[in-house]
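ENTRY TYPE: paired fold submission
RECORD: A
CONTENT: sequence, then structure tokens
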Amino acid sequence: MEKLTLSTEVTFNATAAQVWKGLTNYEMVKTYFFGTELRSDFKKDSPITFSGEWDGNKYEDRGIILEVIPEEYLKYTYWSSMSGTEDKPENYANVSYALNEADSVTILTITQDNIKDENAKEHSENNWQMLMGELKKLLELPS
């Protein structure tokens, strides 16, 4: 069965540098991502982990950084301990963030592959939009 890929966009009234910081800064991620602990040095071939607790269940999601161009592009593999799948290569997705800035407005395009069906695709897209909506609120606070 062929797996699906989603691509979704979020527009930020913020620079690419600000959005990048929001995606990679541990403290900022913890603020908008419901207490999630992000860990990575954001170097190619390095691990990336997301851990915390959701609905009383501990989780540790993980992957490997595949490509990184600061303030422009990040791609990593991703497996969730809450996915109900085994931690093996065929169960990992690729997730990428592409940032395109013009006049202090940044369009973030998120792509995720290896999605099992349309329901899972819709669920993932809704989660990305909600999560990036929280980052948007954080970055666009009046100064």
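RECORD: B
CONTENT: sequence, then structure tokens
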Amino acid sequence: MEVTRIQISLFLCLLSCASSLGTRYTPDWASLDSRPIPDWYDDVKFGIFVHWGVFSVPAFGSEWFWWYWKGSQSPSYVQFMIKNYPPGFSYTDFAPQFHAQFFDPEEMADIFEASGAKYVVLTNKHHEGFTNWGSPYSWNWNSVDNGPHRDLVADLGAAIRKRSLHYGLYNSLYEWFNPIYLSDKQSGFKTRDYVEKKAMPELYELVNRYKPDLIWSDGDWEAPDTYWNSTGFLAWLYNDSPVKDVVVTNDRWGKGCYCKHGGYYNCADKFTPGELPNHKWEKCQAVDKISWGYRRNMKLSELMDLPSIIKDMVYVVALGGNYLLNVGPTSDGIIAPVFEERLRGVGAWLKVNGDAIYGTKPWRVQAENATVPVWYTSKSSTVYVIITSNPMQNSFTLSAPKTSSNTVVTLLGSPEPLKWAPLKTSGLIVLLPDLPFTPADAWTLKLDKVA
């Protein structure tokens, strides 16, 4: 049978249409895990985590306040309530005091932008179940019907996106004391009323309403992913949602999933691998080493200082990870000055050294014990050597780089090339200038045209 031009055109059209549809993912881990992580996430490297909720009102101990008070009945939390609040005071009584009266999303977004972060992840809902938006599935346990009487997710999101930063949302699957969830738990998760009536409808609406670039799932450790129908949600998210081409997810989608399934790997909180992982990963780390939420009783000695933050971030990026640094706003909606100081300090360091962080890849050697420890990152034929303490000497030897006659060595922040000489086998010795003062106590050498 003769093939007509119309038939050929129709075939080419169908082929083009099929190509434009892209890959369709099925609701199983083998298919979902094959989805490439969108490039933007690997390029940005550094983000800000924001833990904010009703727990910011008592601001004592940690963001797990309700659980430690009423769940495990930790003595320090019980005594705190006995000493400071009248008998019969309930956790829900804290919600009207979550005023956020000083919350200015533009000011908060300015601080995050000044930190050099390229994405921000806000707690939409922590394990207490209180949503920072007007969820129709939350009764009045949300920031629109209670507390601030405003949509915190929308307000901060608009300010973040105005600055061309990516916006992500943290969402806890489970809720400590939700009676529907507790009923499902009592059944051994054989019933799924909480998932069908609360967790999943809320999550679908969250995506459709706010179109997050990233979903940071949590609260996954009690029930299996089959209870949550995580694979069904992720298949929709990757195939048909309004963010299907850009959205990034983590690995907390059910008991036993983390470090195995999902998008990038969080694994445990503050995950710190000892070697280069074979999968994209992220370390979440709080400035306050004790709590993710704001604590009124925090001490300066319990906070990470700026050099510690920079060293931690450099370590993570050198090993191919992203660094998500957490701060907890006050219930008034303020980033505490000590947190702001840390964030602006990171941003000041990144203004000079950001080329060694953003858009980089792990090099064939990630670290070297030179006179002082150094970390390597790379872009094409450029290698960055990040020195995380002052070597206190002019000559500095590196054994890992393979130089050529075209190699150029510079100190980021200084335009003049540095004098250097090759070693006999591999490496080089470079003449360092007087290193400029930086509160971060870290500097970067840029090696152009090395193998």
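NOTES ON RECORD B: Residues 23-356 form a domain with the TIM Barrel fold (CATH 3.20.20.80). The CA atoms of residues 184 and 322 lie 35 Å apart.
STATUS: closed
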